Amino acid sequence: MNRLVKRIHIWVGLLSFLILLVDGITGIGVTFLPRYEDRSRPAPSVEMRDYVVPGNLSDNEAADRIWEHLRLPLTNPPRYGVQRDENNDLAFAFYTPKSVIRVTALEKEGKLRLETTPAGAWMFLNNLHATTVRDLPRDWRMRLWVLYNEFAIAALLFLSLSGVYLWLSARPRHRLAQISLVAGAGSFIALYWLSR
């Protein structure tokens, strides 16, 4: 039994390594980097596109039509934040792991203003880390990532439980096991103390 659990433990760990790496880097970044509001962000790029918003639609329907027209990669139709700005122009945003795309429909001019702000490396990893099945992505690449992310959540639980089992069923009095336990607990305590 021990050999089978060990083999499954190793394979599950290898299969979920990428997401555990993303989660680890994200955790360190969130802990030690300045708050998101306090970070410097790259300047957005602005693009204008021709588009006439049909006049007989609600704001949400118009935003859905704009999404269908633009077909921006990795985006979903806007589900929230569709509103009118101070000029009474329809405004909303698309969020992807790599950028935020703010769209303003300039209905009188028959134009769409797209303001794209890149996420940067840390926010890209954080966005990947936070994308789960509740986001219901439509893009196939994001769907695959969500499935992998959900697998990794279950894998992390399995790795924790099987790791404890393997430690207890092996030789807990073994010197290397004791050193590993002390080093792991010490690292966790040091990280907790540093992040306070």
Oligomer: single chain
Number of helices: 6
The chain-level mean pLDDT equals 86
Q: How many angstroms does the end-to-end distance come to?
A: 41 Å
Order of helices and strands: HHEHEEEEHHH
Report the biggest beta sheet as strand number plus sense, adding barrel if it closes: 5 strands, antiparallel
> How would the global form be characterised?
elongated
**Count of all domains:** 2
Characteristic key phrases:
196 residues; 53% helix; 6 helices; elongated; 5-stranded antiparallel β-sheet; alpha+beta; 2 domains
Architecture overview:
With 196 residues, the chain is an alpha+beta fold. It folds into two domains: 2-32 and 131-194, no CATH class; 40-119, no CATH class. The protein is built from six helices and five strands; from the N terminus they run ααβαββββααα. The protein has helices at 2-15, 17-32, 59-70, 120-130, 140-169, 175-194; strands at 45-50, 83-84, 90-95, 99-106, 111-118. Strands 1-5-4-3-2 form a five-stranded antiparallel sheet, with no helix packed on it. The longest helix is centred in the last third of the chain and has 30 residues, at 140-169. It is elongated and about 75 Å long.
Q: Short summary of the structure?
A:
The protein is of the alpha+beta class. The chain is about 55% helix and about 15% strand.
Task: Describe the secondary structure blueprint for this structure.
Blueprint: H1 2-15, H2 17-32, E1 45-50, H3 59-70, E2 83-84, E3 90-95, E4 99-106, E5 111-118, H4 120-130, H5 140-169, H6 175-194
Antiparallel strand pairs: 1-5, 2-3, 3-4, 4-5
Helix pairs in contact: 1-5, 2-4
